[in-house]
Amino acid sequence: MRRLANISCIPVVLVLIGCLGCNGGHASRAGAPAQQIGARHFPATDNGRVAAVVPLRPAPAPVQQAAPAKPGQYTLSRIYPCPECGSVRLDKVMPSQVELNRPFSYSIKVTNLTGVTLKDIVVTEELPDAFELTGAEPTAEQDGETMVWEIDSLEPKASVEITVSGIPKETETLEYCTNVVTPSAATCANVEVIEPRLKLAKTAPQGVLVCDPIRVQYVVSNIGTGPAQDVKIVDTLPEGLVTSDGKSELVIIAGTLLAGQVKEFSAELKAIKTGEYVSKAVARSADGLEVESEPTTTIVDQPVLTITQTGPEKLYVGRSVTYEITLTNTSDAPAANALIENDIPEGVTSMKASAGARLTDKKIVWPLGTLAPHTTKIVYVSFAPTKAGTLTNKVTATARCADTVTVTAQTTIAAISAVLMEVIDITDPVEVGGRTTYVITVTNQGSAPSTNIGVVCVLEENVRYVSSTGPTVGSIENGTLTFAPLASLAPKAKATWRVVVTALKPGDTRFKATINTDELTRPVEETEATRVYE
Questions:
Q1: In 128, 363, 383, 463, which residue has its Cα 20 to 30 A from 159's Cα atom?
Q2: What pLDDT, in 10s, does the model give residues 371-401?
C-alpha cells in the first residue's frame, strides 16, 4: 500500500474485516426493511499488494449520533475496533432502492470518539461488480472494485465524510462493504525538560567618604526555564570593608526563583579605613547553579585638615595681639561643613575677628561651608591682654568625616612700669615770713609695679624747711630733703609727698624734686618756681 502521509512510527493496529450489517453493526431504514451486506476481506491487488490510499483532510466537528435517514434511505453504524473499546464510529447512509441505470450517491462518515488525535486511519470500500463508479469525494485510489482512503490525522471528536457516486448496471441487490483500520491508542506521558539559569548584578557607589554608609544593591534573576531552588547571595568583602553589624561576609537568602522572576535586595556596608575596595558577589542555588556578578569598585576617601597659627612671641600689656589662622584641606575629598573655632583666652578685653566670624558662648566661630580639595582658608583674630603672663590661643577645626585638628599659639605678655612725677606749690607768690606747701605726686602709668621709688627735694636759701608728710619719712640735711624709698607702687596707683617751707627773703626761688626707681635707668627731675615778696 502506498502511504501518502509522513509517519515517523506506526503503532500496532487492529484490523477489523467485515461489512456493515455483519455482527456488531446495526442498521436503520426509513420506508424499507434493513438489508445486510456480506463481509469481504481487506482488499489487495493481484500481486498481493494493498491498493494505494488517498489521504483525507478531516474537518473538526462535534461527535453526534447518526442522523435519522431521509425517506428512502437507511443508516448503518459500527464502532471500531469494538463497541467496548471504540476509537471511531462509522456511519454509512445508503438508499433503500435505486433504479437501473439511474445515478445515485451514498455517504460514509468516520468520527473520532476519543479525546486524543488519531493517526493513520484507513477506510476501504469494496464496490459490487454491477456498480459503475462515476466519482468519489474526496477521490480515492482504486484498484479494481476496491477504493482506499487514508486519514492522516483525526482530531478528538472530529469527523470526515466520504461521498461515493455511481450507476447500477444490473437488476440485482448490490452489496457495498466498508472496512476501517484504526490504530491502537498510545499512552503518552510528557516530561518537561527545564534549564534554570541565574543572573546576578551588583551595583555600588563609585566613591564615598569614610563616615558614609556604602549602599549596595543586588539583583538576582532566573533567565532560564523552570524554578531555581533556594537561591542564596554571598558577598565576601575585602579587608577593611564590613557589614553594618561588623561581619566580613554578607549573606542574603533569595529563596526560590521561578522562571523569569527577578528579586532585588539592598544592604549597607561600612569602611573601616580609606582605600579602594573591589568585590563581587556570588549567587548559588540548592541544585548546584552558581553565577558571579561583575566586580564593583568603590573608592573610600576622607578629607584631611591641617591648621596653623602665627602670632607674636612677646607683647606688652595693653597692646593688641593678632593671630593669623590658616586651615587647609590637603586631601582629594571635599571637606563639607568646615568650621574654625577659637577659644577666647583668659585675661583679654576687646576682641576683633575677620569677616564671617560669630560669637558663640566663649568661642569665636567661622563657618566655612565646604572646603574644596587642596584649598586654604585664612582668618584673623585680635585680643587685648589685660595682665602680664602667657596668653594661650587655642584653635580647633572640624569638617564632616574629617579628623578634628587643633593648634595653640602662646604669646608672652610683659608688663612695664611708667612713673609720672608732678610738683606744684599751693601758695604762689608768698610773702616773706609766710609759708607755702609743695606737693609731689608720683603716678605709675605702666602695667607693672614700680619698685624702690626714691624722692629727693632740694631747697634754695630764701626758704627754710618746716615739715614733710608722705608714704615715707623724709630727713633734711644742708637744704636737701631725702625721703625713704617707697617699696612698690602698683600700676595706675599714686603716691603723694608734701613739703612745707617758710619764705625768708624776697626773690625768685626754685623747688627741685628728683625721683628714681629700680626700673629707671636715670633719675627724673621736676622743678617748681615760687615768687617770694616783701
A1: 128
A2: 999 999 999 999 999 888 899 999 999 999 9
